[in-house]
Amino acid sequence: MKPIVFVKAAMSLDGKIATKTGESQWISNEASRAYVHGLRAEYAAICVGVETVIQDDPRLTIRHDGKEDCHIRMVLDSKGRIPLTSKLLNDDFRSQTIVFTTQHMPLNIEQQILSKGARVIRLKDQDGRVDLKDWIDVCANLNIPSIYIEGGGEVIAASLKAEIVDIFAVAIAPMIIGGQDAKGIVGGSGIEHLKDAIRLKNPKYRWFEDDLILEYHVVKGNKQ
Ligand SMILES: NC(=O)c1ccc[n+]([C@@H]2O[C@H](COP(=O)([O-])OP(=O)(O)OC[C@H]3O[C@@H](n4cnc5c(N)ncnc54)[C@H](OP(=O)(O)O)[C@@H]3O)[C@@H](O)[C@H]2O)c1
After folding, report:
1. How sure is the predictor about 13, in pLDDT bands with cuts at 50, 70 and 90?
2. What is the rounded average pLDDT of the residues 152-180?
3. Is 96 within the bounds of a domain?
4. Quick one: DSSP state of residue 16?
5. Is 224 contained in some domain?
6. Distance (Å, rounded) from C-alpha 26 to C-alpha 11?
7. Is 150 a domain residue?
8. Ligand 1: which of 5, 17, 104 to mutate, most ligand atoms within 8 Å of CB?
9. Which residues have any ligand 1 atom within 6 Å of their CB?
């Protein structure tokens, strides 16, 4: 069975997930971040794009009451750009890291990742990047029932475009970042006509002090 895919990122009220220099820690407040750690625990795997690893060097672990745990951690990295010094490849949970890549990852990079104890899975490529439909099929074959995509904007855009997302959520923080060069929550090239917009339904919301977390189901095949 295909995994359930949940997407969530934290954004400013004007829809930015980072400043123009790539700073994103922290947009959301402590209360909503604590909730996110609970959410991470609900999903079998967590996934980010390689730019997020390059920029933030995240741990993608579940931290609660001073304890740290980890489910499967995935990186979409078509060309082998993941820094070999990244926490995902070097911490105590590195055997739970899977780097999904394509034929474009050089063999010596693959070997170095494997020698650290993480996994590498080569997938089909689509326009030079990991083919997300293939990724979901492989995750289904690995019996991964659910995936939490935590950004960034390019991977969020691509996963929406590939129609693999079931639930879309945002944590909205009471701040304005601004700037054309600051990344928005959905990257990619966007749409030309509103009739092609991705539609959402069944809203749920929850306040975490001044942060608002909004969650919707994605309407599949939802062109008007
Ligand atoms: N506020 C938040 O909650 C939050 C969360 C996460 C990240 N961030 C911020 O977001 C920024 C990074 O976001 P980003 O949009 O630049 O990058 P991203 O989505 O993290 O990563 C994009 C990269 O993923 C790789 N990739 C592999 N397969 C892909 C596919 N099918 N479609 C799209 N990308 C694919 C591509 O690199 P290759 O072509 O080399 O594979 C692409 O450049 C950072 O500044 C980070 O701090 C914020």
Report:
1. very high
2. 97
3. yes
4. B
5. no
6. 10
7. yes
8. 17
9. 9-10, 17-18, 22, 24, 27, 48-52, 55-56, 76-79, 81, 129-130, 132, 150-155, 158, 183, 187
- Residue 206 forms part of a structural domain: yes
Residue nearest to atom 47 of ligand 1 (CA): 24
Domain with 52, as residue range(s), is 4-218
Cβ 174 vs Cβ 13: under 8 Å = yes
The alpha carbon of 75 and the centre of ligand 1 are apart by a number of angstroms equal to 9
How many angstroms does the Cα of residue 140 sit away from the middle of ligand 1?
22
What atom of ligand 1 comes closest to residue 126's alpha carbon? Answer: 31
Q: How many structural domains compose the chain?
A: 1
What is the number of the ligand 1 atom nearest to the C-alpha of 25? 47
Share of the chain above pLDDT 90, in %: 94
Assessment of whether the complete model's pTM goes beyond 0.85 = yes
pLDDT at position 224 over 50: no
Looking at residues 143-156, what average pLDDT do you find? Answer: 97
Q: Is the pLDDT of residue 81 over 60?
A: yes
Q: Which atom of ligand 1 is nearest to the CA of 155?
A: 19
Burial 116-149 (b: 16+ CB within 10 A, else e): eebebebbebeeebbbbebbbebbeeeebebbbb
Give me the CATH number covering residue 207: 3.40.430.10
Residue ID of nearest Cα to ligand 1 atom 5: 151
Residue holding tokens 């995240």? 58
Neighbours of 167 (CB within 10 A): 18
Residue nearest to atom 28 of ligand 1 (CA): 130
User: Taken in order 202, 208, 210, 213, is the CA torsion positive or negative?
Assistant: negative
